[in-house]
Every structure is written in structure tokens, then in C-alpha cells.
Design a protein that fits this description.
alpha/beta, 7-stranded parallel beta sheet
């Protein structure tokens, strides 16, 4: 698998989204934002992101429902639902372009929509949070129609990867965690030709949609003048503290998990 990022891509390895740029550039939070949830979930899974963005100053937010997300239908069918929601948001807000934030499966559905359903022409920025953009090992499991799309090197994924101009005018960001046990291997979460690539010390897959550092980075990426401006690199002390926090959270999670009998 070959992953290509733009020459000016930002890579904040094990970064902390709370780290801000040194400058105090003005923010623009006027673009409508569509939030797309993952598998076995609904719009409520995106409420932590929605609340954070609303408190930061975004006023036009839509957390949509993908139906069904039980594995019985593939990515193409789900992209139809996303297209309907995206165009309804544009019509309601009278915006020329929108921003899209997809989490997990929702990020892959959003990618298909951008590349194959004209979404890139009406999208300003797209953020993929822990998305299985190059398939996952779990895609080999027999979970009905969706598993065929999630397998590494599936026909759908190969079609997307062969696209010579996947994003058009849209800026794209890939957010992931090396501790994510769902998106395996880790690099499957990185979109080709990403403008922004950001790694987080999030202890689980779930935390990629709830961790305060991730939420702050979503606001940072959507409200800045351009995603090409580098983020401040965290200090060694900040990284050490973040790794310790991740270890503590993992330890607490494992202690709370029921032991098999």
C-alpha cells in the first residue's frame, strides 16, 4: 500500500491537538459542518464533536443518521444517504460549500461521496477521524455486504485509490491514533494526498471521537485560514505526559473489563 501526502502536508506525530499555533490568526467558523458517524451508531455518537464546535462558535451544524449501519448494505448505498443530507444542509444554509467530518465508517462513506458522487465540488474541507481508508483486517470477517468494501484491496477501495484527482479543490485531513485497536494497521487511516496528517495519543478507537485533544484539533483544522499552516509541535514533556495519560486510561479500561469465566 502506497500512501501519498501533499508536499506541504503537516505531520504532527503523536501530537497534542491542544497545542496552538504561535500566531493569533483570526478564525472563520461560518462554514456549515456535516458530521457523519460510524458503524452500529447514530447521530448521537457525534454529539461530543458537535458540542465542542458549537461552543467554539460554529452555529450551522448537522449530525446526520446513516441508515442502516449494521453491515447489511455497502458503502455505495450509505453514500446516497450522505449525499441527501449534504445537499439538504447546503440548501438550508444557502452555503456554496460545506465542511464534512467523518468518524470511522462515516469517514470512508464520506470519502466515497467526495470522490464518486460529486461531493468534492461542494466541500471545502474534509476531516477523516480514524477512518478505514485502505481497509482493515476485520474487513475479512463475514459482516454481510459491508465486509466486501472494508477488505484491504477491495474493488471499491482500489477504485478510489486509482483516482488521479481524488479531492479537487477540497482540503483533506487524516486524524488517527497509533493506539487504535480497530483501525489496524494504523496507516490505513491516512488518506492519500492528505493536506493534514495528525496522530493523537488516544487510547482507543472510541476516543478518536471524544478525546478533548481530537475535538480541539477538529476546530483548529476547520476554523483556520488554511490547513496547510503547520500546527505547533508539542514539547517532549507534553508528549511524555500524553503517553502516560494514555497508559493510565488503558489500564483503567482493562481493569473495568469483565473477566471471562
Amino acid at each position: 500500500m502506497q500512501l501519498r501526502c501533499s508536499r506541504r502536508a503537516t505531520l504532527a506525530v503523536l501530537g497534542l491537538a491542544a497545542c496552538r499555533r504561535a500566531d493569533s490568526a483570526p478564525r472563520d467558523r461560518s462554514t456549515p459542518v456535516l458530521l457523519v458517524h460510524g458503524m452500529f451508531a447514530d447521530h448521537t455518537a457525534m454529539l461530543p464533536i458537535a458540542r465542542h464546535l458549537r461552543s467554539a462558535g460554529f452555529s450551522q451544524l448537522e449530525a446526520m443518521d446513516l441508515r442502516p449501519v449494521d453491515g447489511s448494505v455497502g458503502v455505495v448505498a450509505l453514500a446516497v444517504e450522505l449525499d441527501r443530507a449534504a445537499r439538504a444542509l447546503r440548501e438550508r444554509t444557502r452555503a456554496a460549500r460545506i465542511d464534512v467530518v467523518g468518524y470511522s465508517l462515516g469517514a470512508l462513506v464520506a470519502r466515497f461521496w467526495l470522490q464518486r458522487s460529486g461531493g468534492r465540488d461542494i466541500t471545502r474541507r474534509f476531516l477523516s477521524l480514524a477512518g478505514p481508508q485502505h481497509g482493515v483486517l476485520g474487513g475479512a470477517l463475514p459482516i454481510a455486504a459491508l465486509s466486501r468494501d472494508l477488505r484491504p484491496a477491495s474493488p471499491l477501495l482500489l477504485e478510489l485509490e486509482r483516482d488521479p484527482d481524488p479531492w479537487g479543490p477540497c482540503e483533506v485531513g487524516s486524524f488517527f491514533s497509533p493506539f487504535d485497536a480497530v483501525i489496524v494497521p494504523t496507516e490505513t487511516a491516512i488518506l492519500p494526498r492528505s493536506t493534514l496528517v495528525h496522530a493523537f495519543v488516544a487510547p482507543t478507537h472510541h476516543h478518536m471521537g471524544t478525546d478533548p485533544h481530537v475535538l480541539a484539533a477538529v476546530d483548529e483544522a476547520l476554523s483556520s485560514r488554511t490547513m496547510r499552516t503547520p500546527l505547533a509541535i508539542p514539547s517532549a514533556r507534553q508528549l511524555e505526559a500524553a503517553v502516560e495519560r494514555a497508559i493510565r486510561q488503558r489500564s483503567l479500561t482493562s481493569r473495568r473489563a469483565p473477566h471471562p469465566r
